[in-house]
Specification:
single chain, 8-stranded mixed β-sheet
Length: about 575
């Protein structure tokens, strides 16, 4: 510990660090360790704490500057008081590096209880004590690296001011203003132009290469009911990594029949990748051609599944509806991006909405134009995360959804979802944001756990529209408004899994929930952004399955686990 303090002390004096800045940095480090929605691994918490320290340090420096320039000159103190102040400041500068290290270790040790409680609430194992003790060292390293970068920017600004004064023979004030404008313009340009462009171009290059790779178990279908299989109008190699995984996944008719103990049908899985056609509408038309080719109108239902990011369709959700229907279902999806969901959320939300709207409208038009002699399958919409936003884009509101489809299952909707947000804001008085009730539950429902509907028989007018959302899912609750506005969900009693010690603090809560976004699957199933174990109940509810009770759920949950094991093993 002393060696670390000596190193920090020498570095401190060379860099003239601010005592006020470090005090606020320490407070910011403490705030980053306070309870949030989900537990964090030690390395991720160290990163979060380090960034928090830098922000706090900058705020402290700003406060010190305001004090020295605007407040201190107006205060008159005697020589004795000034001498005592100088001595105290000198001592603080000497002791600060040691105090900072001790404080970080102590704060982390104190926060262990909070982190353990958060882990318990979401059903995650508690990290060992040794992992917690790595946090302060990671945080210090991140803080130092970021501070070096900021000091380099400051040095560049000072060089620019000197250059402007020397070259153009201007005063100190105009030179400083010029320096601020130039550096700010460069930083904004880099932050909003160069960095995003380079980031997204690099991401596209990386993930477009990944799109050509195959996940374990992905193979060309041997049955005509799958895109890329015999007779398909879509080439298997053009489906993309997630598309190939989707059409080659799931269990077939014989395995379904053996599991269910009854005759089953070969499930239909149809898909069009980015390389299958040039535009969303063209890819949607390919999917409709596949519906015709596979005679999907003869199935009991068709599920439209707008995808997330890379074109992923949750295999648990697809397998669940195929089990519940005995294979009498067609599932369709299209790819709109190479990028994973978290990048697509930043860059491709409009693209996701356009693709979702195109696919749903194409399938609805196909169903509505079926000749009178053909059966008319039930039409359901499924979406997860960004896929819910893509699905909502096809509808103007709840009335449009109810008039168009036979049921909806949307899980983990982002807070930016237009229809979801309007329903939550107009929820019935006395109901919470985490489990809102709209129109007494007659038209649409929200649930933390759809297993509750096995035991509830309150009126619900078909079609069933169901949103599944967790109180601990940062994807659902993150919004820029968290910066300065306390959200309703933090003014209410905590929902399932949320720590009661999580309170709203301007800016701090925004930063905490933003950090949780990078750790959205850091809990266990049924918490955070993990919904795999709830799709069976969700599908049974959305499709209005009769006699769905605890015994039926246990039976199908066991079959679903076996089917997923067979799928991954195959």
């Amino acid at each position: 510990m002393s060696r670390v303090g000596e190193v920090l002390g020498g570095w401190w004096h060379r860099w003239h660090l601010s005592v006020t800045g470090l005090i606020v940095a320490a407070l910011a480090a403490w705030s980053s360790l306070m309870p949030s929605l989900l537990p964090r691994a030690w390395h991720y918490q160290g990163l979060v704490t380090g960034v928090s320290m830098l922000v706090g340090y900058g705020l402290g420096v700003a406060l010190r500057t305001v004090w020295r320039r605007l407040v201190a000159p107006r205060i008159t103190l005697g020589p004795t008081v000034l001498d005592l102040g100088d001595r105290a400041l000198a001592f603080a500068r000497l002791a600060a590096p040691y105090i900072l290290v001790v404080y970080l270790v102590t704060a982390t040790a104190t926060a262990v209880r909070w982190q353990d409680q958060v882990s318990d609430l979401v059903g995650s194992p508690r990290p060992p004590w040794g992992d917690y003790m790595r946090i302060p060292w990671v945080a210090l390293a991140i803080f130092v690296v970021l501070l070096v970068v900021c000091r380099a920017i400051r040095s560049g600004y000072r060089w620019l001011v000197r250059t402007v004064r020397r070259r153009f023979d201007v005063g100190e004030y105009p030179a400083r203003v010029t320096g601020i404008v130039v550096v700010a313009a460069l930083l904004v340009g880099v932050a909003e132009g160069v960095v995003p462009r380079l980031f997204f171009e690099s991401a596209n290059r990386v993930f477009s290469v990944q799109n050509d790779e195959d996940l374990p178990g992905a193979r060309r279908p041997a049955v005509s009911e799958r895109s890329g299989g015999p007779g398909s109008v879509v080439a298997f190699d053009d489906l993309g990594m997630q598309g190939r995984r989707f059409v080659s996944g799931g269990i077939g008719r014989e395995q379904l029949g053996d599991l269910l103990g009854q005759d089953a049908r070969e499930p239909i899985r149809l898909y069009a990748g980015l390389e299958s056609a040039a535009t969303d509408d063209q890819r949607s038309r390919l999917v409709v051609a596949e519906l015709e080719r596979t005679r999907a109108w003869e199935r009991g239902s068709v599920v439209v599944a707008p995808t997330t990011g890379t074109g992923w369709i949750n295999p648990h959700a697809a397998q669940a509806i195929e089990l519940l229907s005995g294979g009498d279902v067609a599932i369709v999806g299209t790819q709109y991006s190479y990028l994973p969901s978290w990048i697509s959320f930043l860059a491709d939300r409009e693209k996701a909405e356009t693709a979702g709207r195109s696919l749903i409208e194409a399938v609805v038009t196909w169903r509505d134009s079926l000749p009178p002699g053909r059966p008319r399958p039930a039409l359901y919409v499924y979406g997860e995360s960004l896929g819910t936003q893509a699905g909502e884009a096809a509808f103007s509101g709840i009335r449009d959804i109810r008039a168009t489809v036979d049921g909806v299952l949307w899980v983990g909707p982002p807070h930016s979802n237009r229809i979801w947000r309007s329903l939550v804001e107009r929820r019935d008085p006395g109901t919470t944001a985490t489990e809102p009730v709209y129109a007494d539950g007659l038209l649409v429902r929200f649930s933390e756990d759809p297993g509750e509907f096995r035991r509830r028989s309150t009126p619900w007018i078909p079609p069933h529209i169901l949103y599944v959302q967790h109180a601990t899912d940062p994807v659902v609750w993150w919004t820029p408004d968290l910066l300065f506005d306390r959200p309703a969900w933090l003014a209410e009693p905590p929902g399932k899994g949320r720590h009661p010690g999580m309170h709203y603090l301007p800016v701090v809560t925004f930063f905490q929930v933003t950090a949780d976004l990078g750790n959205a699957i850091g809990g266990s199933q049924g918490y955070g952004h993990l919904y795999d174990h709830q799709v069976l109940d969700g599908w049974a509810t959305a499709t209005g399955r009769p006699e769905w009770d605890d015994d039926e759920f246990q039976r199908f949950a066991r079959l679903h686990a076996i089917a997923m094991e067979q799928q991954y093993r195959g």
